[in-house]
Amino acid sequence: MSLKILITGSSGHLGEAIIRKLKDTQYSYIGADLNPSPFTTHVGSIVDRGFVREAVKEADYIIHTATLHKPHVATHTPQDFVDTNITGTLNLLEEALLSGRVKAFIFTSTTSTFGDALTPPRGEPAVWVTEQTRSVPRNIYGVTKNAAEDLCQLFYRNHKLPCLILKTSRFFPEEDDNKQVRQAYNDLNMKANEYLNRRVDVEDAVSAHMLAIEKAEKIGFGKYIISATSPFSREDLAGLNSDAVSVVRRLYPGFERLYRNRDWKMLPQIDRVYVNEKAMKELGWNPMYDFGYVLDCLERGEDFCSALSLKIGSKGYHHQEFDEGPYPVTDH
Description:
By secondary structure, the chain is of the alpha/beta class. It is built from 12 helices and 9 strands. The strands form 2 sheets. Strands 3-2-1-4-5-7-8 form a 7-stranded parallel beta sheet, sandwiched between helices. Strands 6-9 form a two-stranded parallel ribbon. The chain is globular and about 55 Å long.
């Protein structure tokens, strides 16, 4: 009998991506989501304890990707975030213990928890973001994801339930939520730039989650930044937040020709660098997609997005459409 993994958020970008990959492994899956999809076997809410109990009862591992995201801050109440992101996580952790079967719990968190710590004052170096960087949440999304991380740590401390937290950077295919960014940059141009410091391809995010399943019982507890490998070092930080183009030109002398051919442009300033060294070392993670890969694809005239990300496509975050941008924006 194959081991079963419960994936919450199975109708979302990452949940679907994980399940697509699971089909090629020895694992079987249970997919739980509010929204029906070909990858969801249990339709319901993780806020409903009875639903969670039913979903968990045959699971050997749990990958918890379900969440209210930043795009929901303007459309949902703070209580909605507490219910889904905190109570929902607590329901899953408690039912995992009660089942007596769950071997490990993998929680998908976000680099957004670092919040205001990611934006250095004018004239200061870019921020070197590691798992030790202090979180300064700027909205209810960051607050509740931080609290859910703490719940995972508590369940490992008090109950010895192995819990690994994967703090993923951007992998969504939707347009940027910032109107000024959308007006200034072609969408693919902006995503290419982000591979320098704050984006991960969904295929690499999936491989990190699969490695977490393999390593969780041995590690016990850990937090890991899951982002494309950045070419920058600490010595680059001062230059990045004042003249990023010069820093990138030094590392990739040919990038400007490739960008010019597409009428693309580099960011004048880069304010943070997500560091994935811990995940590479402790999980054995080796992400394939980085800025060098992007440039190689541009040279060959190929799409730099993984086949998996293209297969999943854009899902959006709301059932309705909005006049201004992909979704309404607020940090409060």
